[in-house]
Amino acid sequence: MLTKQLEKFGLSEKEAKIYVALIELEVATANEVAERADVNRSSTYVVLDSLLNKGLVSISEDKTVKQYVASNPEILLQEIEQTIQAQEIVKKGIENILPELKALHKDTKAKPKVRVYTGKKGLIATFEDSLAVKEGVIRIASSVTKISKLLPLYMPQYIDKRAELGIKMIGIHPDHKLGQFLLSLKASKVAGDDAVLIPAKTFDFTSDYAIYDNKIAYMNAENGGTAVIIEDKEIAQMSKNIFDLAHAEARRIRSVPKKQRGVQK
After folding, report:
1. Burial level of 125, CB count in 10 A (0-12/13-18/19+)?
2. CA 159 to CA 183: how far, in whole Å?
3. φ, ψ of residue 71 in degrees (nearest 5)
């Protein structure tokens, strides 16, 4: 029972056995301790050195043969009290910096994930990422012409693939021939797209912009192509709300007579 309790204090099984044996013997040689503790002789020397370093054992100086003496057991209580005091100091220190640590932890979790892609392959990777949308809806504000000119072979494939996957596009596009053609595509009708055209002269889209799930993707065809994907739930939701407002306003603009809208033919 004693040795088990000492093990909880932090001693090894052999250290506990030898310390208890030495307390019982009061003063003893290593051989006597080994016999009493039922520990082999070579191990006993190693363990006694360990107990010496911990201050639990001392060497008797009034004997011709090296003998060991167990320190007062009260030293164990003192050790525990010192450990508790040290831990209390550490605890108070952590309590003082805890608010700052929590703030850092929250900021880390809240930081948006940002990925940047370059070149045609980067643009294609961004479009492919949007096809993995879980909501089944992509909101797109597009220049139409710029990306189509840079990726003339890929864009038709993307439109068809999107339709096959049943992903709906809610779009805002410039009202010109290519924009009108995009709305007339069979793939757009199959996917149940809800796109609206806006006056091209008044609203000149220089880049493409897509929102899907918790992501916002910006795509620019200039300088060989650049794409940036920002992943953040709150930012994406806010962007969806703004987009839906713009989409509703675009429909309102469409209801205005053409002469007032200045549609590009």
Report:
1. middle
2. 11
3. -70, 160
Q: Amino acid identity of 94?
A: I
Q: Is the pLDDT of residue 108 over 60?
A: no
Q: Which domains does the chain have, with CATH numbers?
A: 2-71 (1.10.10.10), 113-258 (3.30.870.10)
Both tokens assigned to 256: 């205005």
**What pTM, to 2 d.p., does this model score?**
0.55
Amino acid at 13: E
Distance CA 235, CA 228 (A): 14
**Cα angle: 131, vertex 190, 124; to 5 degrees:** 25
For residue 240, the model assigns a pLDDT of: 94
Task: Provide the pLDDT confidence category of residue 173 given band limits of 50, 70 and 90.
Answer: confident
Higher-confidence residue: 95 or 242?
242
Bridge partners (DSSP) of residue 66 are none
- pLDDT recorded at residue 109: 57
Q: Which residues contact 62 (CB under 8 A, 6 or more apart)?
A: none
Alpha helices for the chain (secondary structure H):
2-9, 13-25, 30-37, 41-53, 74-110, 119-130, 145-150, 154-164, 177-184, 186-190, 233-254, 258-261
Q: Supply the pLDDT for residue 103.
A: 73
Rounded to a whole number, what is the distance in angstroms from the first to the last CA of the chain? 96
Cβ(49)–Cβ(14) below 8 Å: no
Task: Using the CB atoms, write b or e for 210-229: b if 16+ within 10 Å.
Answer: bbbbbbbbebbbeeebbbeb
Helix (H, G, I), strand (E, B) or coil at 9: helix
Task: Say how far apart CA 15 and CA 34 lie, in whole Å.
Answer: 11
